[in-house]
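Hi team, as promised in this morning's meeting, here are the two structures we talked about. I've kept the exact order from the run log so nobody has to guess. The first one is mostly here for context; it's the second one we should focus on when we meet again. Sequence first, then the predicted structure tokens.
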Amino acid sequence: MSDRTLILGTLRTAPGVLLIEPGPHLVMQDEVHTLAKEERERRGLPPSHPYVGWHTQANGFGRGGTLVRPQRVFFGGDRAVVARALSLLEPHGFAVLGGRSDTESFVLHRDASPERVDHTLADAWRTRLAVLGDDRSGPAPLRDGEEALLHALVAHPGMRELLAPAVRALRIRSALTPADLDTTLSPDGVDALGAEASPVVAHALAADHPGARRAAAALAGQGRADSRVLTAWDDTAEAVRAARASALAGREATTYLDLVEADGGDPVAAAVALAEDIRTHGGEDSGARVAEVALRLVGRYGASGRDNALRALRDERVPSWLRVVIADRWTRSPVTVDGLRADHSHPLRPGLATAPGAVATAAAWPDAVDEVRASAGLPPSPGFDLAHGPDRNAAIELRETVVARHLDGLRAALAREDLDEPALAVLLELLSGANALRPQDLAPFARTWRKRLFVKPTPYTDAPPALVVYTAALAGVDAPAAGKVVDAVLRDKRQWSLPVRLMVHGAVGRGREEDLATEAELVAPAHGGGKGSGAARHALCLVRARLRGITVVEAACASLLEAPEQPPYVRRGFATVAVSLAEGGTGLWEHRFRERSGRALEAALRVAGDATLPEEARRRVLRLADETTVLDRPEHTRPVRVHADEVERLRAAREEVRARLVT
């Protein structure tokens, strides 16, 4: 019987606890708790009935069902009842840790009970030491006589492969003895300790063990000494040299700057020199190492926040190229005063927006960034991190603000040759959606569109595929190449490109006869559930808007009513299209209803509240608006927070729309 089978079988029959069966249907932790609520209701159990479960990302089992890493067990209800249920696994060779509060998950480990120190029991000791070394969920209590066995294990010359975990088990229990340190601080002992070496040497320095300084020097010479050793070492000059060597390698930059400052030096000058050295010598990860130094440099002005980053941007001691690195590091999502106020308007983070200078910093930040970039001979910033998906999506959510403030930066970014498709998709959507995409912005793609734009889009970008917007934009300016690009796209046969081809059909009008033929082709896939059905529904609405001379939202609502009532996801899909089209921008894509988005909720309420649209379609869109989490969990809105006052306005607006539709 596998570990997985045994554990699940035990928990299924454990008294007083409901097991939420794990499987691929549970991807996120929240889904475990949501399913538990549904299961309790379905089975008629009290709302407080205890349950346990875990999601796919927390799975600790290998293919054969063996427990290969600690299994986190999430729970709800009475913690003591859950603990008793999990304790039923202990006689089967498992240890149960964690669960020390209602918010800490329990953790299952494979366990063993070696009763002597012998190389034939190495596997059993390895299993037991994994339990004893878990200080995150433990530490587990030692059994009778186990501490003496651990000391013997440390001293055993034939079991050096277990020295590090044995020392760790003793160290986290403050049980290391001078004899243990004599063994571990020998040259071969320090080598055998691996990552455990620094905390042990730091402990030895604090205890003034005779071998501690020699071991610290050895670690420093190998570049293995971390902050615990470097700050405890009483040879300041050696500690500074060792810390700088580590900082050059991308580690311990903060420790190095702390030691420089403690020794009477200038930490800002030291950070600048360190960054210059990394930049000069290069290396494949030099950019990341410089960014780390920039982060720690800002910390020299105070807490590592944007207000101190602004001070660094204005400090002439910092070279312009390094200030650009700092500016990029603190420009992730778009920086706005409204965003700051929204971010701190909820109970989880009250009052932070009123911190001294916070609003002034947010207001000054975009101009300061562009000034720094100009001083380095660079174009303006696009206002967000092009390489990070959540930040790209935040720019889409705040599209009007981003385009109004960063138009030149967006155009300059679009001209870069190093960007991937998701970044180009967002830039094209922002510019085209604001009618700010010029022929000269499209020109660089004339020869490269196949390689750069006609690639499989990511499903995690809240923007149309770059190729769809590019093709529509070419057609919109009557570019001679538009027809050739459209033909090339529509001839493609790759399976992943089907949604892209369908959207190009919808986005580019090629005359009434062509649109009539396209409409006829789109109805079947739009009313089905196969691959590309969402894109087919969206494209059908765009085509019908042209054919019928109505708005795209009107076409989406009409298409909803013309669609079959079963299966229900078809009409829901057309409701999603209506919301997508009402959000603004190019209106050329429909992934899903973004239930955590304030912008999507606002658009849904506009559609549901529009008295010129069919009432049945409005009711369906209102049901979509009811799926939002913005009103019930406003602190978790994504990709940007919605201000608490705006949440209340949206709540009132939804109820007003509901009342009008009911009456």
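And here is the second protein, the one for discussion:
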Amino acid sequence: MPATEGRGSKARLPWPRASGTERLLQGGVLVILTGSLALGLALEPSETGTGTHSALGLPRCGMLALTGHPCPTCGVTTSFVLAAHGRFHDALVNQPFGLICFLLVVAGMLVTVATLTTGRSWVPMLTVYGVAVPAAVLLTLALLSWAYKWMRT
């Protein structure tokens, strides 16, 4: 029976074994994602809704300083940190894309743990639509979040 056919007439994706290289890469991805989450937990969110990144030694947003309006990423770090602290509503209200980034990090951690523990590759399932569709969705969400943040300032 071909790998794309299941019981009855329902088609399914193959679920191949992850190669050693893929598992090693997934382990590296897990370390990076876990570090991002740990950093989010270690930082304190800015009460102004932007500027949390300055605790990392990064400069203030030039666009915000010059125009008084946020750049596309203003508030993303603050919202990520708010979400890491369990303040999901505050994260959503502050900068929706920061909450989306947090949820993607958590989902990425789950997928990498699943690959490492089951030995199965999730790559075919995650890339069934290619890169264009997820990239377009993320770009659209980022732009909508920026418009939302812009209107709130």
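Starting points for discussion:
Residues 43 and 68 are 25 Å apart (CA to CA).
The chain has seven helices and no strands.
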